[in-house]
Amino acid sequence: MAGHFCLTVFRRIIFCAGCFFVLELLARTPDPITSEATSVLLTRARGMLENDQSEALLPYLKEILVRLEGNTSDDAQAARIFCLYQTGVCLMQTGKYAEAAAAFESFIADYPSESSSSTAALLAGEAYALQRNWPVVEKTVRPLLEDKRFDVKRQLMVRQMLSEAFYRQQKWKEAVVPLTEVFNQSKRDTVRSSSALMLSVCYAKTGDFENLYKFLPYCDDSVRQDAGLNVALIESGDKKCSGGAFQEALNLYQMVLLKADLLAYYERQLLAVKQFLSKPFVVNVGSLRSDYDEEYRAKQMQYDRLAEQLKKIKESPDYTVDIALRIARCYAGLGNNGAAYKLYNALYTQHPEHELAEESRFQAFMILLNMPQEQAAALSEGLAYLNNCPANRFTDEVTLNLMQLMLTAGNLVDARAMGLKGLQLRPDHRFIDQVCYLIAYIDFQKQDYEAARNAFTEILTRWPASNHAEASEYWRAMCNLFLGQYPKAVAAFDAYLKNLAWPTKSFGEDAAYRLGIAFYGAGDYPSAETAFRKFLKTYPLGSLRSEAFSMLGDLRRAAGELAVALDFYSKGIDAAATIDQVNYAVFQTAKVYELQKNYSAVIQLMENYLKDQGEKGNFASAGFWMGKSYKAMNQYSQALAVYVDTVVRFGNVLRNDSVDLILRELIKEYQSEQGRAGRPGFINTLMDALRQAEDRKEDVLALRLRTFFAYSTDGAEREKHVSVIFKEENIDKSGALTLLLFAEEASLSRNYALVYKACSRFKAEFNAAELFPNIMNLKLNALIQEVKYMEAVALAEEIIGRFGYQPPIRLTLKLKADALRLLKQYDSAIKTYNELFMIREWRGPLIPQALYGIGICLEAQGKPDEAFAFFQRIYVLYEGYTEWVAKAYEGSVRCLEKLGRRDDMIKTLREMVSKADVVATPEGKIAQGMLDRLVSAGGRK
Amino acid sequence: MKVWLDELINEKVGLQIAPLIDCVFLLLIYFMVSSSLKRSEADLSLTLPGQVAQTKELKMPDEQIIEVLASGSIVLNGKVYSNPAKLDLAALENTLTRYREASQLANTLAMITIVAEDESVHERVIDVLNVCAGAGITSVTFGSTD
Predict the structure, then answer these.
(1) Contact flag A876-B48 (C-beta cutoff 8 Å)
(2) How would DSSP label each residue in A163-182?
(3) If you placed Cys at A127, which of A84, A100, A814, A915 could pair as Cys (CB 3.0 to 4.6 Å)?
(4) Does residue A831 sit at the B interface (CB-CB below 8 Å)?
């Protein structure tokens, strides 16, 4: 074992020694380059040069240059020039560009006047270019532009290199001149195409779209895929788009190659190059290995470049959706909303997860907003956005726009809720001041002036510099006016008008006029007159001029200066811009004529008014005034004729609810003494009108006339008309008064579903009609009958809130109080009953009912003594209302029983049964029985 | 002749009372026949049937307004008093008396507002004032029809 080991070690030692000996021998062999004569080296170098042996040639050239260093003889210098130049060339050919550039720079520095120094500079530039050192390329090549030693081909090369240097440094403007020269002078299609591409990019980048369009057609398929061009096209499109040139932007976007196209192109190119590279060199006649190597190297470089670009494209995000979004934007800009919407819709439908899907949905919503016929779709789209992308990028815009959309549609409740939702989703809402402003405005529209005033005040406090601050200050003043707080309104309008924060006031005219109204409301008539006169002077062409004249007329009329008032009203009529302004001035004029008892003037005024305004005018009021004036002139038949004529002329149009007011007037006239006198002729005229209306199938008018007869007749005659009217299918053809009759009949027959239906129809068609509270009272009663007390109270509050203290509201108040009583909210009920006593004009049958209601409430609260007083008040002072007198006696007896006042009970019962009309009531009959029992039990009668 | 003259000169002037008495009786008979006695209606009680006095002042909100129309009619809470011979004024007075009594029991002041139309007869306003006085209501004011 030990012997074998020693043998192995010995063998290795022998092997190492052998190797060392061979290497030593090799080292001692003399170098052929260093040992040869310079002339020999030069000869060998030339031979290698001829055989393109660049790699092998370099050591010879270096050796020669070393040997010739410092030798100033002409031959030595010539040889050195040759070697130095060829060193650069060889280094270039072997891919050592940095060294090559240094060699050429050295050559130029040593031999600046040498004829080949220009070519050396050109080659140095190329070496730098191959290193992508573009600033140095520019610096090296730029001086060659004026070099006269270059032939045309070299000059073209100089320009080509310089232009690329500019291009790569993104010096777009500088690149244009050399690129244009290359494009014009080059004979090679590939060069022309490349320069056209670069020119297109330069023009796109510099915004020279005219030249861009000129050069784009020269970019053939070999360069169209260039990423730079596509980016330039997108950027140019963006510039055009932002400049409003949507058609040009669209053209540019449509020229951009999409990612899929680019990938396909690069893959095709790579495949072709790869196929070349995979083929080995085949020796053929005339084919050189060196040519093959050169081409192989070029193809390899091309392959690497293509592979790199393909990788980049693959890694880059897909911009197909982005381009589609831009194209859709162009369509929208061009007004082709349908195409834009389809594109946006397709984007978020087909790419729901794409980062631009949200924007697409938002843009689709915005497009629909701009399409008046697609407002419902816009609403759905906006709500879908909020459901799919709550609290996202465009939530602020969407909630605001939805709010405005709902506002435009008159849906105040939903609009307000949307505003609040927006603020809840986005506490830092981008348009928070605008949303708050709209909420305040909605409160104002809903006549919740207190809430609106608070909201406007908050806007002014939190965002004093907001665009809505001025409007908020104006509307806050309006809130004061509508709340009837006139001194506050005066101060607010005055403050607004004097506020220097907004010198050009958007509401200046309105505020100046309303200031006068506020003074008027505050009872400061001299200041009001001053304000109106100042308004007329400041805004001689203002849209409220007519109203200011009319207000001055009112002020002068109140002062008894009727002639002056008439003059102002006349100016008001002349200056009127709207029918409402005409109406006010005309009917105020009529009131003055009435004071002057100048009835013929009233008739003349109304005739002129009807002639001028036609169906636009308030013909019912005009007819009313004419009828009234004829009556005052004792021309009773003329009065009725005017009424009937107005009804027949305008009564077949459903929306003409003023006709219903005349019908009510006719009903009153019919029941009056004078009406009775002329009844036969009157009835005949209306009957004829009814027959003609039915012959002409004028259903609305026929129903209106039948309504007149139903209200004016009784018994079988009334039933005849009611039976024709009271059919469900007539609801849609019924005017305001007919619907009221319909609801009354339905209420009497306890068909509450029909009451609700008639009310809904009335609300939809005649929301602003004078009869609105009347029919709503029937609905209110129906709700109470159906034990829907809470709904009844809510409805009552809505009616009261809207109509204030108009006469029908007394019944609303009474019904509300009844509902509260039935809800056992006795204190609230008593308070509401008491409101009925506040207005003297409301005296009538509701007063004993209210007293009775209070009595019932007090009784339920365990206060029979107080309740008794209220019941007693009824039979002491309201004897005419038998039904309530009977109930009041009954209530009194009940209270007395609770108080243990047996004798008083008997006295009260005795008085009750002594009245024939009371004893005939159900309560009276019960009272009789009770009295008998009490007397027999007490042994006294 | 002388006798006749003396008698004439010495004649005593005296009042003949018989014809005077005749005249008085005639007038008395005339007035008795032509006048009617004012009497209360039998079915109207002057006092309230049941009386419950309140311990504190009750808030009775309804204002009592008596309207005097141009036609001469007097209206209280929808009830019209229009008898040309004023026979129904007693009923009005009775109602107001009961009102005054009820107010006293409620510790409130019975108040009447007379609202007379522009062309109403002054006499009818006086009638209402007399009725109020008869009922013991002293708080009477005048209001306008507007």
Answers:
(1) yes
(2) HHHHHHTT-HHHHHHHHHHH
(3) A100
(4) no
Per-residue pLDDT for A25 more than 70? no
The structure tokens 């007038």 sit at: B27
Mean pLDDT for A870-884 is 92
The beta-carbon neighbor of A876 closest among B52, B65, B99 is B99
Cβ-based contacts of A901 with chain B (< 8 Å) = 50, 52
Task: Identify the bridge partners of residue B116 per DSSP, sorted by sequence position.
Answer: B68
Residues A637-658: b if buried by 16+ CB within 10 A, e if exposed: ebbbbbbbbbbbbbbbebebbb
How far does chain B reach from its first CA to its final CA, in angstroms? 87
Q: Which of A162, A186, A185, A183 lies closest to A174, judged by CA?
A: A162
Choice between A326 and A819, residue whose per-residue pLDDT is larger? A819
- Across the interface, of A851, A873, A904, the residue whose CB is closest to B50 is A904
Q: Which of A835, A839, A854, A866 to mutate to test the interface with B (most CBs of B within 10 A)?
A: A866
Retrieve residue A670's tokens.
């019919």
Q: What percent of chain A has pLDDT over 70?
A: 94
For residue A96 the two structure tokens come to 């050592």
Give me A206's structure tokens: 């510099």
Please check whether residue A426 is in contact with residue A449, taking contact to mean a CB–CB distance below 8 angstroms.
no
What mean pLDDT do residues A560-573 have?
94
Q: Which of B63, B67, B77 is the best substitution to test chain A (most A C-beta atoms within 10 A)?
A: B77
Residue with tokens 């006696």: A889
DSSP B136: T
DSSP tag of B23: H
DSSP state of B36: -
The mean-pLDDT minimum among A310-314, A535-539, A893-897 falls in A310-314
Q: Do B50 and A865 touch (CB under 8 A)?
A: no
**B17 has a pLDDT exceeding 90:** no
Phi, psi of B63 (to 5 degrees): -90, 130
Q: Which two tokens stand for residue B65?
A: 């307004």
Q: How far is CA A670 from the centre of its chain?
A: 55
Asked whether the beta carbons of residue A840 and residue B65 sit closer than 8 angstroms, the reply is yes
Query: Among A639, A717, A715, A622, which Cα is nearest to A677's?
Result: A639
Cα A357 to Cα A365: distance, rounded to the nearest angstrom: 12
| Prediction pTM value | 0.54
| Phi-psi map region of A614: left, alpha, beta (phi>0 left; psi -120 to 50 alpha) | left
> And the tokens for A29?
């062999």
Round to whole Å and give the CA distance between A598 and A604: 10
**Average predicted confidence (pLDDT) for chain A:** 86
How many helices (H) and strands (E) chain A has is answered by 52, 0
Distance (Å, rounded) from C-alpha A56 to C-alpha A119? 23
Distance CA A163, CA A201 (A): 13
Q: What angle do CA A824, A829, A835 make, to 5 degrees?
A: 175
Name the least confident of A89-103, A235-249, B41-55.
Answer: B41-55
pLDDT at position A533 over 50? yes
Highest mean pLDDT among A285-299, A386-400, A521-535, A652-666: A521-535
In this structure, the number of other CB atoms found within 10 A of the CB of residue A414 comes to: 17
